[in-house]
Amino acid sequence: MEMLRNYRNLVAKVDELCRRIAGEFGEHLACRAGCDGCCRHISLFRVEGIALAAAVNELPGEKAGLIRERARAASSEGPCPLLEDGLCILYAARPIICRTHGFPILTTQGNEQLVDFCPMNFRNMSSLPGNAVIDLDRLNTALISVDALFIADFPNNRILRHDRLTVAEALLLGVCRT
Ligand code: SF4
After folding, report:
1. Which of 29, 55, 78, 165 is the most exposed place for a label (fewest CB within 10 A)?
2. Across-strand partners of 112?
3. Is the pTM here over 0.85, yes or no?
């Protein structure tokens, strides 16, 4: 648990940011339980994968086994293996990208800055104020640093063969003592 402290601090900051945006712009957000359009093709940093695996390990054996079964059966083109009846089975432990689902995301591509968000949201606004937007490049820079620090100290890092992993791969990482 201690090894994931930096990651959990970052999660808390992202949650705070999302709460603030939802508080100010809630009337323009259509996101709700049961809407799962974003729950596909999620790619995780290693630290996020280990955090997810650790959350599975904390579950009772039968439930953890069922989740791993779903992960084994998952297809790369299908929905996230944690999605069940439109809801996330591990919602409290969901990765950072999932916490930002639906919110306007700012990215830089070359010299261009782009804002992307769920078309169901902010439908009646002709322009978006800056305080409604999450700077994804800044968030990823923080996540890359947290990931590098974590991996440098993670004793079992040979189980992580790639820099990024899918949710299914994370759920199948096995026992992680963090
Ligand atoms: S981890 Fe949960 S919130 Fe994230 S994509 Fe999967 S089901 Fe959706």
Report:
1. 78
2. 109
3. yes
